[in-house]
Amino acid sequence: MNNFKFLAERAEYRSFSKDCIDAEKAYQNSYDSCVKLVRTALDAAIKWVYVKKNKIPPENLFDLIANAGLEKNLADKLHFCRKAGNAAIHNEKEFSADEAEQCLKNLFDFVQWIDAKYGKNFVPRSFNGEKNILQTEICGIKLNTPIFAASGTFGFGEEFENFVDLKKLGGVMVKCITLKPRRGNDGIRITETPAGMLNAIGLENPGVEKFLSEILPRIKEKMNIIVNISGSSVEDYGELAKILDVDGVSAIELNISCPNVKDGGIIFGTDEKQAAKVTSAAKKSTKKPVIVKLSPNVTDITKIASACENSGADCLSLINTLMGMEINIHTWRPTLGNITGGLSGGAIKPVAVRMVWQVANAVKIPIIGMGGIRSAADAAEFFLAGASAVAIGTANFAEPSITMKIADDLEKYLRSCGLKNIRELVGKVKV
Length: 431
Description:
There is one protein chain. This protein has 431 residues and is α/β, with parallel strands linked by helices. The protein contains 14 helices and 18 strands. It folds into two domains: 5-118, Up-down Bundle (Four Helix Bundle (Hemerythrin (Met), subunit A)); 136-425, TIM Barrel, CATH 3.20.20.70. The chain has helices spanning 5-8, 14-26, 31-52, 61-66, 72-89, 97-118, 208-219, 234-243, 272-285, 301-310, 349-360, 376-385, 395-398, 402-416, and strands at 136-138, 141-143, 147-149, 171-177, 190-193, 196-199, 225-229, 251-255, 259-260, 266-267, 290-293, 315-318, 322-325, 327-328, 333-334, 340-344, 367-370, 389-392. The strands form five sheets. The protein has an eight-stranded parallel beta barrel, surrounded by seven helices. The protein has a four-stranded antiparallel sheet with strand order 5-6-16-13, with no helix packed on it. The protein has a two-stranded antiparallel ribbon with strand order 1-2. A hairpin with a 2-residue loop joins β1 and β2 (141-143). α9 (272-285) packs parallel to α10 (301-310), α11 (349-360) packs parallel to α12 (376-385) and α12 (376-385) crosses α14 (402-416). The longest helix is centred in the N-terminal third of the chain and has 22 residues, at 31-52. The radius of gyration is 26 Å and the shape is elongated.
């Protein structure tokens, strides 16, 4: 941004020009600092207006705005900046890039008004906002950020709307859906581990019919919706993909870490032929992009990835959870009612990064990386390894707004690297 530079060229604006320019510079490093400095610049600029009118400016910024004789629309913009500035000063919240930019734009509108009213050579200008360097797309789906919420950790999205700007997410991979409702596993289903957690929920969900009739109508306008589906036969996946080929669904994600009950209980995601069959069945049944979620519980994940790509997968997401187990040393029994469960969280990140890198070098379709991401630094590793987007899972339980923080910090990281778009980071690991 370079919107306030013209103020420095006018000697009459010296009392507030530096504050405006400093606020804009701060945007590159800290959105909170930017908002604070906007309030400082606004204070100085509006006092300048009072002096120009030969009036004594009030001490209170609210009174400064209220008694300045501004039209309501402009006064409302300044009140927005005042309230945001106060919140930033008192550390009441963390500000996003959009909020900081809105404060700068409101300040710019005010100094434009000053220049039009009191300037000698007024030249109309347009605010030049920063391009969204996180904006990208996968499988034709436009993403405001390359940050998804992973299935099973974010409900149906609506549960998090008080913590997260759902439109700012790349999308939400909603809770896994099956043909019929499932009550899930009995007994203890979640246990914390030293660097993550084990879960054995058992795909509890309301079933596809209730999802379509009650849940999808409530959420379809709020975000990009990726429906994660699971079945116990190849036919189940085809039928689910067909049923979910409706408006409001952006893509289908195949959870293939499940047993094929019709073929001896073999796990779809651990056998390349089974993975290929499921992918093909889904692709033949829907016009939506098909994302295949790969299991890490295999010897060579690239073989599964290639089989899915050759069967028509539009995208791959990886990794799903690693199989794990915990035993209570006092009872000598497994902690989880299901005995084993899926390990997720920070502990699995190095494994996930390695697998994303391997798969990125084996296929040409895009990858959504996931597994232990808790910060923008973690996310950046996945992009460097070859992921075009990432999904945040277990970290949502510890910090419901973590996806927003990762998006904001990732943007700062890209700017610090001199990059103009997230796509410039993908696959750039130096090996």
